[in-house]
Design brief:
about 40% helix, 7-stranded mixed β-sheet, binds pyridoxal-5'-phosphate, 13 helices, 5-stranded mixed β-sheet, Aspartate Aminotransferase, domain 1, Aspartate Aminotransferase, domain 2
């Protein structure tokens, strides 16, 4: 059992250590806490946050994990920990827009170059590796869910001394184990499936202890600390993670089949259709994207849906749609067709969601 999960009174849910600091009776006790890595200030360490970190490390079968105030906090800390001016990063396209903007904006200003290569262009990724310091990859990719051929890519990266970081938000430690296929570090937006209830923004990184140790300086100094209450909600979310993913998948898989047969839909993006899904994915999750004829069709579809709110993010209990044209910066960055819509299938009854898709598509001219 991990030391942060010892019940005090046999409680079924863990206590929350909702405190900013820990006080000691003597200087010697304070010194001992520092030496032993015990909590003394919540920005550095908090038992509730440590419990969430231990749970994620167990899930990812990693030596250690570090939690952050957001997925972007984890991504930024990892990039700042491992790259310096003059370095080059290789990333796959389409990668999550925030990471794309961090690489092409802030990090470019700090003298870090990025090479973008399509997710399924394994040869292109392999060609881009020599001379790169780090590979920042996402699989399945954002918005279109192509699966990376991680094993040969990680092997080539390690032969060149480059680190491999994987944004594994989609697979959530359950649907894939990137660390087993050669990744050095996995990064998650815990705001998605780990939370599952759309009430937390959080991030977490997991991997070898020495790499997690290297994240601690940017973590401490950039201040992207996870709050104890959010960590407590995340521990609760993890308890139903696998069940929720199975349910999300059931609805999304049926919806993907229905959407493929609909005349108003030009193309369906669903992770299980990728040729590499069998090798790397246990199963798909909640996300399906559809390409409709144009922006007007995408707008009409989203507006006529009754059970799906228009909204960013995903991974919660409620169904959402995101027409990509409504986020012009993202759409432009990847050259997405105007009619592309991302759908997150929540936990509502499957038949209701399928019926809603059907009625909304029937109103798309
Ligand atoms: C794949 C992926 N990675 C990272 C992030 C960033 O996470 P957060 O919003 O928790 O900062 C997101 C958010 O949408 C995402 O979809």
């Amino acid at each position: 059992m991990n030391p942060y999960d010892e019940p005090l009174f046999g409680e079924a849910a863990p206590a929350i250590f909702q405190t900013s600091l820990f006080g000691f009776d003597t200087v010697a006790e304070f010194e001992r806490a520092i030496q032993e890595g015990a909590p003394y200030y919540t920005r550095g360490k908090n038992p509730t946050v440590a419990l969430f970190e231990a749970e994620v490390a167990r899930l990812e079968e990693a030596e250690a994990a570090k939690a952050f105030a957001s997925g972007m906090g984890a991504i930024a800390a990892a990039l700042f920990a491992f790259v310096k001016p003059g370095d080059r990063v290789v990333t796959n396209r389409p990668v999550y827009a925030g990471a794309h903007n961090l690489l092409t904006g802030v990090l470019k200003r700090f003298g870090v170059e990025t090479t973008f290569v399509d997710t399924r262009d394994t040869e292109g990724i392999l060609r881009a590796i020599p001379g790169a310091r780090l590979l920042y990859l996402e699989s399945p990719a954002s918005y279109t869910y192509e699966v990376l051929d991680l094993e040969p890519i990680a092997e080539a990266a390690h032969a060149e001394g480059a680190l491999v970081l994987i944004d594994a938000t989609y697979t959530a430690g359950v649907l894939a184990k990137p660390l087993k296929h050669g990744a050095d570090l996995v990064l998650h937006s815990a705001s998605k499936y780990f939370s599952g209830h759309s009430d937390v923004i959080a991030g977490v990184a997991a991997g070898r202890a020495e790499l997690i140790e290297a994240l601690k300086e940017p973590y401490m100094l950039l201040g992207a600390k996870l709050a104890p209450f959010e960590a407590w909600l995340l521990v609760r979310g993890l308890r139903t993670l696998e069940l929720r993913l199975a349910r999300h998948r059931e609805t999304a898989a049926r919806a993907a089949e229905f959407l493929k047969s609909h005349p108003a839909v030009r193309r369906v993006y669903w992770a299980e259709d990728d040729p590499l899904a069998k090798k790397y994915l246990r199963h798909g999750a909640s996300l399906v994207s559809v390409e409709l004829e144009d922006e007007a069709a995408a707008r009409a579809f989203a507006d006529h849906l009754k059970h799906f709110k228009v909204g960013v993010s995903w991974g919660g209990h409620e169904s959402l749609v995101l027409p990509l044209f409504a986020q012009p910066r993202v759409a432009r960055a990847y050259g997405f067709p105007k009619g592309l819509v991302r759908i997150h299938f929540g936990l509502e009854p499957t038949e209701e969601l399928l019926g809603d898709l059907e009625q909304a598509l029937s109103r798309v001219s």
